[in-house]
């Protein structure tokens, strides 16, 4: 059940490398186009995808809840495609969605900033100053997205198994390293164990989506953990009614075997509601 995740910078050359690696391995590439194709099945429109994909939140409470709901739906697409195995997840914090799964090969494709600007200007036939602005904005948005949703520095090399500088190495060599690297014995994992972990992650994601979509639940930040289909809800909600709704929403998710309720009801309300 090999899974490759590719983190990349705009203009770094990740696009052709990912396509060629997928072709050589016979893997399915889960990129923006694949997500766009699957999006309608998950309640995602092209407008929503443009608004949320790989961008940090707007920090407007009501809007951010909708943005987060959309992000979780994109993540569910990625998880359900990963369950099928033999996929390359291109961007979107793919590796962060698959914790504790040993068969994930985490790749990052980089190049110096000015080289990436030059490449982007040539590729898109645009003015170098515009390319400079676009690459800088893309870096900021993607770094912010990873920091906000996954709390890590996307430039830290310790988060990757392979970092490729495409100024130093050719695209062909980059593809070769990925194709050979994914077969390393250290990435081996019992297929059934990996699928079990992924199924639990999918259940967790579906519950997160149900919680965000249900406006009867005000506090959307209580913890959800899943092991072998057994769900544990832990943290606090604002009322007994919210607790009952959270439990009911969870029980309706396919794959839930049992539920452990550790939610606590607290009377706190924000200052905005108090005035």
Task: Briefly characterize the structure.
The protein is of the alpha/beta class. It folds into two domains: 3-182, P-loop containing nucleotide triphosphate hydrolases (Rossmann fold, 3-Layer(aba) Sandwich); 199-274, 2-Layer Sandwich (Histidine-containing Protein, Chain: A).
Strand count, sense and barrel status of the largest sheet are: 5 strands, parallel
Name the shape in a single word. Answer: globular
CATH architecture of the largest domain: 3-Layer(aba) Sandwich
SSE-based structural type? alpha/beta
- Overall pLDDT confidence: 91
Report the CATH superfamily of the largest domain: P-loop containing nucleotide triphosphate hydrolases
Distance between the termini: 54 Å
- Supply the number of structural domains: 2
The CATH class name of the largest domain reads Alpha Beta
CATH topology of the largest domain, anyone? Answer: Rossmann fold
* Total of helices: 10
Report on this model:
Helix 1 packs across helix 7 (171-181). The chain is 49% helix and 16% strand. A hairpin with a 2-residue loop joins strand 6 and strand 7 (230-237). With 275 residues, the protein is an alpha/beta fold. It folds into 2 domains: 3-182, P-loop containing nucleotide triphosphate hydrolases (Rossmann fold); 199-274, Histidine-containing Protein, Chain: A, CATH 3.30.1340.30. It has helices at 14-25, 32-38, 46-52, 61-83, 113-124, 128-150, 171-181, 191-213, 240-251, 271-274, and strands spanning 3-8, 28-30, 87-90, 104-110, 162-165, 223-227, 230-237, 258-265. It is built from 10 helices and 8 strands. 32% of the residues are buried.
